[in-house]
UniProtKB/TrEMBL annotation:
Pfam families: FeoA. The keyword Iron applies. Transmembrane segments: none annotated. Keywords: Iron. This is Ferrous iron transport protein A. Residues 1-78 form the Ferrous iron transporter FeoA-like domain. The keyword Isomerase does not apply. It comes from Sphingomonas tabacisoli. InterPro entries: Fe-transptr_FeoA-like (IPR007167), FeoA_core_dom (IPR038157), Transcriptional_repressor_C (IPR008988).
Length: 79
């Protein structure tokens, strides 16, 4: 399933990231924030702006907000 489709408060692990779908700067930022295969992740809440962007995730011990388009490039498996 895509990270953008992960239900709130469901634990998952990143199974794959399609770096080709992300721009160079986006990919670099996600790597710096700890996004990588095997990392535990949980959707915390959706933004209130049109399209429910951005989405806040718990990545390890951090809370990170990313756009839905970026989250669509990340595949997760439920824990």
């Amino acid at each position: 399933m895509r990270l953008s489709d992960l239900p709130l408060r469901k634990a998952a692990h990143i199974s794959a990231i399609d770096w080709a779908l992300l721009g160079e700067a986006e990919g670099k930022r996600l790597r710096e924030l700890g996004f990588d295969e095997g990392v535990a992740i949980e959707a915390l809440h959706h933004g209130s702006i049109f399209g429910r962007d951005p989405i806040a995730y718990r990545v390890g011990r951090m809370t990170v907000a990313i756009r839905r388009a970026q989250a669509s490039a990340i595949r997760v498996a439920l824990a």
